[in-house]
Amino acid sequence: MTKNPRGFASDNYAGIHPAVLEAITQANEGHEVAYGEDSVTAEFDALVRELFGPNAQGFPVFNGTGANVVALQAATKRWEAVICVESAHINVDEGGAPEKMAGLKLWTVPTSDGKLTVELAASQIFDMGVVHRAQPGVISITQTTEMGTLYQIDEIRALADLAHENGLLLHLDGARISNAAAALGKSFKEFTTDAGVDLVSMGGTKIGALAAEAVIVTDTSSARGKALAEAMPFLRKTSMQLSSKMRFMSAQLIALFENNAAVAIENATRANSMAKLLYEGVVKIAAENASVSVENPAEANAVFPVLPKEITQRLQQQYRFYVWNQETGQVRWMCSWDTTEDDVLGILAALKAAL
Q1: Cβ of 130: how many Cβ atoms within 10 Å?
Q2: Among 86, 126, 307, 314, which one is least packed by beta carbons within 10 Å?
Q3: Quick check: bond before 218 cis, omega within 30?
Q4: Which CB contacts under 8 angstroms, 24+ apart, belong to 289-295?
Q5: 258 near 47, Cβ under 8 Å?
């Protein structure tokens, strides 16, 4: 094996995109005011308005968990809860941070494809005004989902309508928002602000940044949006997500998302296309071997095959990837912005050999 081979465990394993490295170098000139009062962050502020609408406001943070914790704190009162699917990152993969750091109750619902529907979300909106139950304050969805699936714009809009009709907010965990935009062929604004999303956790790290995410308040012209934006700087500080040298975080986000998110979309398109190639290859193998199956479609940059345990163990000696469901044998293969066709063909060949 070559040194540091590309695997399929996570798009976090990928390196930093050259454009991001160059942006960090350019930002490293002279002195700038700390804690976000710098000229680079001012450029990012303007970029957020281009991406999400004239009334949007962005707040850079260090990581995705921090973005979600800050956003959900802003969206909820102390006695309120968050509705999400059981497989949501905020429920499964954030070490209890929403509960421990934000003090939030999560009302979760099971779903096989990782998507929250109006019916599922509505099942948790009851006993409103009853003090014995944590009151739903926000609905949180992930785009793309933890199962590699994709919300269509009308699905997001329906959830936003449900939330707003019941006095709730809609939060979108966009750790892979660029992969969603590439898959949908739509701008960020079209499936967030225009669809009624109130808060977005915008991911940069998985698509080529070093360590840069942001919380986006999509519409500060409304009373609730203004309140969210006013709370954000204080929550970001108390949540230990305020960077003193914020210009370097802002520079990374600008490099990825300027010019209609050109670099991010290019990176996402590559990752998505590699996942499509990988998915099609696994489907062909599954057609010839009943011990292999693929239950969920590959709608962005993730593939979720089900493999025999011994086959998984053999493959993991050559490629890094995670077992997603210990009971069923489902694994996750994640394609990154730097995944190549040779990488995909390599793991498919290894799967055939192991079988």
Answers
A1: 8
A2: 126
A3: no
A4: 289/355, 291/355, 292/351, 292/355, 295/112, 295/330
A5: yes
Please tell me whether residue 80 adopts helix, strand or coil conformation: strand
Residue 233: alpha-carbon gap to chain centroid: 21
**What are the pLDDT digits (tens) for 241-293?**
999 999 999 999 999 999 999 999 999 999 999 999 999 999 999 999 999 99
CA count, 13 A, side-chain hemisphere, 322 = 15
Axis crossing angle, helix 246-288 with helix 18-27, rounded to the nearest 10:
170
What is the spatial distance between Cα 122 and Cα 45, in angstroms, rounded to a whole number? 35
Instruction: Decide: helix, strand or coil at residue 111.
Output: coil
Give the model's pLDDT for residue 23.
98
Residue 84 is inside which H or E element, if any? strand 80-85
In degrees rounded to 5, what are phi and psi of residue 325? Answer: -140, 110
Q: How far apart are CA 49 and CA 70, in angstroms?
A: 20
Q: Rounded to whole angstroms, how far apart are CA atoms 49 and 36? A: 17
CB atoms within 10 A of CB 221: 10
Report field, pTM of the whole predicted structure over 0.85: yes
